[in-house]
Amino acid sequence: MTSVQQKSLxxxxxxxxxxxxxxxxxxxxxxxxxxQHDEDGILLFIFALIGTTNRKCVEICAxxxxxxxxxxxxxxxxxxxxxxxxxxANVAKCKQFYANHPDTRFWPPAVARExxxxxxxxxxxxxxxxxxxxxxxxxxxxxxxxWLWEAITCVTPRVVVLEFNxxxxxxxxxxxxxxxxxxxxFTQYGSDYxxxxxxxxxxxxxxxxxxxxxxxxxxxxxxxxxxxxxxxWLPEVDPATCFDHPRAQFGMTVRYEGIKNKAWVEV
Length: 267
Hints:
Blueprint: H1 3-18, H2 26-29, H3 39-50, E1 56-60, H4 71-76, E2 80-85, H5 88-100, E3 110-113, H6 121-127, E4 132-139, H7 145-151, E5 155-163, E6 174-175, E7 185-187, E8 190-193, H8 198-208, E9 210-215, E10 221-226, H9 246-253, E11 265-266
Parallel strand pairs: 1-2, 1-4, 2-3, 4-5
Antiparallel strand pairs: 5-10, 6-11, 7-8, 9-10
Helix pairs in contact: 1-3
């Protein structure tokens, strides 16, 4: 999908909202351009409704920067920001990609290698010149995501997208214990022992001034909007309504059995 097509789609969303048509859902608008799943379309929808301020973003654990939640905004919508990853190979590939891409080569995003912890996350973000108000924070490290979001104070994002552990469904507010060197436990299905449940992030979000406005279709990424931003098409949603996809149901039953007795912290 080209930049022009995406911008036309955003105009259409604004028009529909202005005309008070029946609200669209995240299932209606989800699509993939550079994101792993349908996050790109959901972010376009959200920012079509609430607008942007400085078009700055921070993504923690961006991988190679090609498939991630901020890539489409950086490439097609002239955003700027900082991307972090713990892999030297990923960081090198990311730097090369944005330095060579015609839409970012004259001002590529900052890209830094960093193993994020509670004690260094703020200084790492500040070191790349992205402290203060930003439009988007993306967090997906398959690990201590809850503890990092809790620790982040140097940026004030209007929108937060983060990965949660859907195996817990809405049954409990739990996270993996904090460790600087935490490494997720993977199965054939993905990172089963990692992260935090959606209710845990909802509770943390409320403390930080954010409401849950929905998830992507397969219930892996949650979207939060700052409470100062009012939009009738982006109301707070109940976490229990976010797990209707068959993959989520499978995770909450079959995969859950493998992690329910591991070490979890109730929050």
